[in-house]
Every structure is written in C-alpha cells, then in structure tokens.
C-alpha cells in the first residue's frame, strides 16, 4: 500500500486535483467547494473493491481500494479482471450501466430506475462532495 500511495503522490500536480481524485478512486467525483474543503485519499484493501468515505465538517476522507492482484497465481485471472467480469454477470447490473451511459445519475435515481427495495435507499446519504 505504501508503494501505491507513493506512486499516487507523485502524480500530484500532473492533473487538476478533481480529475486526479476521480482517477485514483476509480470514478468517484468530488466537487471542489460546496462543503468539501479538504479531500484526503488513503489506500485500503480490506473492503475491495469498495471505497470508504467519511465526512468530518469540511473535510472528506476517501479510503480507495488498492488493487491487490500482485499476489495472484500466474495461471489464474487477476482479481481485478475477475471483479470486472463478475460485475457484468447480472442483468440488473447491465441495466444500470446502460442507464448510466445516458449521463451521471444519483444513487436514488438508479435505485428508482432499477426498482430496488425502498429500505436500501433509506440507508443512503448524499455526501456534499459527490
């Protein structure tokens, strides 16, 4: 993880900060300002492939998933490839991707489109940075 953090740190200044954060977090966009005054990115592997996000006042901490495929056996597909292929294995996931192809959508919009249980949507909170 320290190698990943060092390589990401070396990229600071090569891209606008919001674009770099989006690349590091595999697609999460943090809107500068609007309640997100400071963004801290930290690598983690315990909850792969999920990113963990905490908000404290004007600061947001995003623990992004580090690709742990460095220890995959040579005769097996990497964990990253396996996760990507598995993510496309359900019809509802493909419907979500098609829906997102039309443009950015909030979690609530996706849930309504797919028709997932209302109980799941009650658990979601919109972060001021997303």
Task: Compile the SSE list and pairings.
Layout: H1 2-10, H2 17-24, E1 38-44, E2 52-56, E3 59-65, H3 79-87, H4 91-101, H5 107-114, H6 118-123
Pfam families: HTH_5
Keywords: DNA-binding
Domain HTH arsR-type: 91-120
Textual characterization of the structure:
The protein has helices at 2-10, 17-24, 79-87, 91-101, 107-114, 118-123, and strands at 38-44, 52-56, 59-65. The protein is of the alpha+beta class and 130 residues long. It is built from six helices and three strands, in the order ααβββαααα. The protein is globular, with a radius of gyration of 16 Å. It has a three-stranded mixed beta sheet. It has a domain at 1-71.
> What is the number of helical segments per DSSP (H or I, 4+ residues)?
6
N→C terminal distance? 25 Å
Quaternary structure classification: single chain
Average pLDDT reading: 81
State the low-pLDDT regions, or none. Answer: none
The H-and-E topology, N to C, reads as HHEEEHHHH
Give a brief description.
This protein has 130 residues and is α+β, with helices and mostly antiparallel strands. The chain is built from six helices and three strands, in the order H-H-E-E-E-H-H-H-H. A three-stranded mixed β-sheet has the order 1-3-2.
List keywords for this structure.
globular; DNA-binding; WH_DNA-bd_sf; alpha+beta; 130 residues; HTH_ArsR_DNA-bd_dom; WH-like_DNA-bd_sf
């Amino acid at each position: 993880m320290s190698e990943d953090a060092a390589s990401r740190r070396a990229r600071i200044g090569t891209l606008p900060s919001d674009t770099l954060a989006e690349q590091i977090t595999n697609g999460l966009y943090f809107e500068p300002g609007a309640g997100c005054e400071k963004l801290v990115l930290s690598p983690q592997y315990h909850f792969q492939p999920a990113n963990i996000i905490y908000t404290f006042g004007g600061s947001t901490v995003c623990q992004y998933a580090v690709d742990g495929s460095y220890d995959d056996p040579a005769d097996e597909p990497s964990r990253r490839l396996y996760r990507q292929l598995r993510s496309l294995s359900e019809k509802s996931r493909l419907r979500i991707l098609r829906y997102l192809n039309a443009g950015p959508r909030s979690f609530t919009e996706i849930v309504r489109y797919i028709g997932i249980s209302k109980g799941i949507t009650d658990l979601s909170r919109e972060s001021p940075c997303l």
